[in-house]
Amino acid sequence: METFVIGLSIASILFMVALGLAIIYGTMKVINMAHGEMVMIGAYTTVLATKHLGFNIYLCLPLAFLVTATFGYVIERTVVRRLYGRLLDTLLATWGIALILQQLVRIHFGLGLFGIQIDGLGSDLQNVPVPAELQQAFHFLGANIPIYRTFVFVAALLLGALSWWLIFKTRFGSQLRAVSVARNTAAACGINDKRVNTLAFAYGSGLAGVAGVLVSGFKTVSPDMGTPYVVDAFLVVVAGGVGHLIGTFAAAGILGEVQSFVATWLNDVYGRTVLFTVVILILLFKPQGLFVTKSR
């Protein structure tokens, strides 16, 4: 049971990171290699806010969303917007942005910002305090279930529900789906597709920032912490079906549990190996992913 709960928390983080990536790719057909760095920025925002503003992890969730959404907004407006329709160029450009962001945290902030030393940034590993009520555990079916991992799972469900409402029940969501299916037709009907792209990129980046806050509660924070998450998020998006919300949720659950159980029985290396094997098998038998978006 404990292994299952660990798998749920892994799946929850994967879902939040992959959901933002799925929205960005599904709408803009952009492979955003800097998406993992939004996780890192969200985690470092938590480090700074807890140390210097006295925030707890609850207040850091909306703060990190706003910070990383702003980063996403700027990246889309200054770089990505100029590269639409050039898939390889966007991949290389966002990869470059990812490296720049890592180095800014590792070197520039480590030496001081504008001559002012900032405690909590740099190449040293950082830790985030978890509220006392989330450090406890409760007994369920003879197992000790950490409350914090349950909190992560509930947060992922709420964000998934919010994203579903935003995509399927709002005017912006209708525009988002129209642009993702037929951009030129949507633009001809009066939809500002550039505005939709910017907001989608910002929202997807904000989701990754929230994931970074939750990751910082049980892992150390470092400049390169986001790199593994962008790889895993791509696996989830591809395995679940590009741009499919339910598919992303299902794929995150399957891959999270697979990694948790195999890592518990053997080790993390085998867990990663089996994870990639499962994705390959899914793509062999379901090339378009577990779920396919219906189109006319």
Describe the structure.
- By secondary structure, the chain is mainly α.
- It has helices at residues 2-28, 35-53, 57-78, 87-111, 147-168, 171-181, 183-188, 193-215, 227-240, 245-265, 268-285, and strands spanning 137-140, 143-146.
- A two-stranded antiparallel sheet has the order 1-2.
- β1 (137-140) and β2 (143-146) form a beta hairpin.
- The radius of gyration is 19 Å and the shape is globular.
- It starts with a helix and ends in an 11-residue tail after the last helix.
- The relative contact order is 0.21.
Provide the spatial order of strands within the biggest beta sheet: 1-2
Q: Could you say which structural class the secondary elements and strand pairing correspond to?
A: mainly alpha
Number of strands: 2
Computed CA radius of gyration, to the nearest angstrom: 19 Å
Helix content: over 70%
Q: Which word captures the global form?
A: globular
- CA distance, first residue to last residue: 43 Å
Q: SSE order, as H and E?
A: HHHHEEHHHHHHH
* Low-pLDDT residue intervals, each spanning 5 or more residues: 111-117
Rounded mean pLDDT score: 84
- Report the portion of residues in β strands: under 5%
**Sheet with most strands:** 2 strands, antiparallel
Number of helices: 11
Oligomer: single chain
Overview features:
11 helices, two-stranded antiparallel ribbon, mainly alpha, 296 residues
Strand-helix topology:
Blueprint: H1 2-28, H2 35-53, H3 57-78, H4 87-111, E1 137-140, E2 143-146, H5 147-168, H6 171-181, H7 183-188, H8 193-215, H9 227-240, H10 245-265, H11 268-285
Antiparallel strand pairs: 1-2
